[in-house]
Amino acid sequence: MQADSGDRHGRILDAAERSFTQAGFHRTTVQDVAREAGMSPGNLYRYFPSKDAIVAGLVERDRMMLREDFESFAQAERLDLVLQALAHKHFEEAPRAKAVLCLQIWAEATVNPAIAEANMTLENDLVHGIERLIAAGQARGEVASGVDAVATAQLIMTMSSGLFVRRALFPDFDAGSEIETLLNVIRGVLRGDTLRGVVPHYSPLDTVMATETHR
Fold it and tell me: Which candidate among 22, 44, 122, 189 keeps its CA 20 to 30 Å from the CA of 158?
């Protein structure tokens, strides 16, 4: 009986993901989700009392999946390979619809305190997970001792969020290229390099001079 309840719970969340991605969060009703899940609205309400509760359930499911990711890499010996695997899994292998849904949840979190709280819990878990990976890398000598694990974890989250936005908004998003750029920046930061030393910097004057040179 408990397994059946879990299956129905997951079925509703899967249906909600499809419905929200196709029609948008605000245009999708609980009745739409129930129809997509192949059940009556009354039956759905036994598992989720509101649309907000469904969204919170989606965020919590993602949080648990990400926690499993971090646990599976807890004993890994190379931080670089761990970050590479996580980046490809979430920015390339996961369907683009996942990024689209993520943007909708973030937008709703700006006006809905309950969803904002659920999203913040996931965000904190992610930052702490990355922080632990960096600290473990420092203990193995892979990461420069002067690197601030907390600040670097937050920086990685900020850059990763940008990739989610780009993947959701641009159908021609080049995951392989953008992931490699992200990883190169992260590698430099973990070595203790400044961002200026990792990412080429072009001033307006540089651009003008380059243009003049090629005329």
Answer: 22
